[in-house]
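Title: Prediction job returns without error message
Component: structure pipeline
Severity: low
Priority: P3
Assignee: unassigned

Description:
Job completed but the reporter wants confirmation the result is attached to the right record. Sequence as submitted:
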Amino acid sequence: QVQLVESGGGWVQPGGSLRLSCAASGFPFDRYGMSWVRQAPGKGLEYVAGIYHSGGNAVYSPSARGRFVISRHNPKNTLYLQMNNLKPEDTAVYFCARSFGFNIRARRGPGTQVTVSS
């Protein structure tokens, strides 16, 4: 069955960095666009970034552009999100999703918590 498992979250001070990973299994990973979405406390899902199945194209939300980098390693069935210059407003649960664009019904993992505070 389709499984997505995120890891790499944690607590970091403002200005710090984190690298999230998403291990995928149960489907042909290299045939699917993938994305990262997040949900802050008390808010809805927010699209962060997406990447083509080949890794050849990526898109970012305005809040992520210039600070975050989405990438993938298809032989390892793994999706990444490098987050730099983190801000308190980046605090959220981050999910990887089996969709290039924003799709609230896309399969997601259980998520990993990212907390940015001093």
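Comment from assignee: result matches the submitted record. Strands lie at 3-7, 10-12, 18-25, 34-39, 45-51, 58-60, 68-73, 78-83, 92-97, 112-116.
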